Amino acid sequence: MDVRRLELLLALSRLGSMHAVAETLNVTTSTVSQQIAALAKEVGTPLVEPAGRRVRLTPAGRRLAGHAVHILAAHEAARADLDPSAAPAGTVRVAAFHTAIRDSLLPVVHRLAVEHPAVRLEIQEQEPPDARAMLERDLVDLAIGYDYNLAPAPIDPSLEVGHLWQSTWSLAVPSRSRRTPGTSAEVLGAFADRDWIVNSRNNADEQVVRTIAALAGYEPRVTQRADSLQLVSEMIIAGLGVALLPATYPKTTGISLRRLHTPEPRMRAYTLTRRGHANWPPLALLLSLLQRRTH
Q1: Which fold would CATH assign to domain 166-267?
Q2: b/e burial code for range 2-30 (CB count within 10 A of at least 16 → b)
Q3: With a threshold of 0.90, does the pTM exceed it?
Q4: Locate the HTH lysR-type domain: which residues (predicted)?
């Protein structure tokens, strides 16, 4: 099978229309149509069918597109093995959470543009469960997620994990709240009568809160949910509850951070790739640049 035709079929499965494929790959729509028709003749079965004014993949087309992911990755790996001097080229699709995009991905975008212009990134913000689901469905090539040492995320064995960085988290309370020394359980125990603010799109921090509260012997009262750390801080100032925030969170009028230890909650950022795909040169390059930023 012609590799270029497989690339077009895979792009069609991801982009949904021949026009979008043509624009993305800088070819004409008629070229896309002709090459996919030639591929269908090559494999002996229709790969697309009409769907209103557009086309969609047939079941055979979807199956072949699934195989194309592995075939193209193996082809690219073989090309790189035979010609190590060849520059990485291709589009890496990434789903990552807000902080990882800001602190890890964006700093490497400029470097890629200058040193590896043939490698493009398509980035979308997603919380870890959604990013992981997209990776498993081959909607992205790389997922960057996070969990906590006190609430580890289950990882499917079909995925490979790469550790990026970790950060310590503290209890954020309104300024002038009473100070209680001691372990995490003792500190949280002093706020057993307070409402809690947790993440609205991911329950990992809520699991941490419940784990430490259980050590203190009480069930936390979760009444507020918010997605952005800035909004969480504003809700704390407004008196709506207490929450976990990074220990490095900028000093904010109206908020006091209380250190937590024994146990110390730590958020851990990590990369996820489908097993065996991390050697695809554009993805391998991106992973290498991300790892270098953490050391």
Answers
A1: D-Maltodextrin-Binding Protein; domain 2 (3.40.190)
A2: eeebbbbbbbbbbeebbebbbeeeeeeee
A3: no
A4: 1-58
* Alpha carbon distances (Å) from 157 to 71, 108, 152, 266, 275: 21, 28, 15, 23, 8
Structure tokens at 45: 């079965």
Sign of CA dihedral 144, 145, 148, 151: negative
The string of DSSP letters for 182-241 reads S-HHHHHHTTTTSEEEEESS--HHHHHHHHHHHHHT---EEEEEESSHHHHHHHHHTTS-
3-82 shares its CATH topology with 166-267: no
* Tokens describing residue 113: 């543009």
Tell me the domain boundaries of the chain: 3-82, 166-267
Decide: residue 83, CB within 10 A, 0-12 exposed, 13-18 middle, 19+ buried: exposed
CATH class in words for 3-82: mainly alpha
Per-residue pLDDT tens digits for 121-151: 999 999 999 999 999 888 899 999 999 999 9
Residue that is written with structure tokens 């597109």 in the block: 65
Residue 294 and residue 108: Cα distance in Å, rounded? 12
- Report d(CA 105, CA 208) in Å as an integer: 26
Closest CA to 272 of 149, 147, 132: 132
Cα distance between residue 106 and residue 98, in whole Å: 11
Residue pLDDT, tens place only, 81-129? 666 667 888 889 999 999 999 999 999 999 999 999 999 999 999 999 9
pLDDT (tens digit per residue) in 182-204:
999 999 999 999 999 999 999 99
Two tokens, residue 32: 């896309």
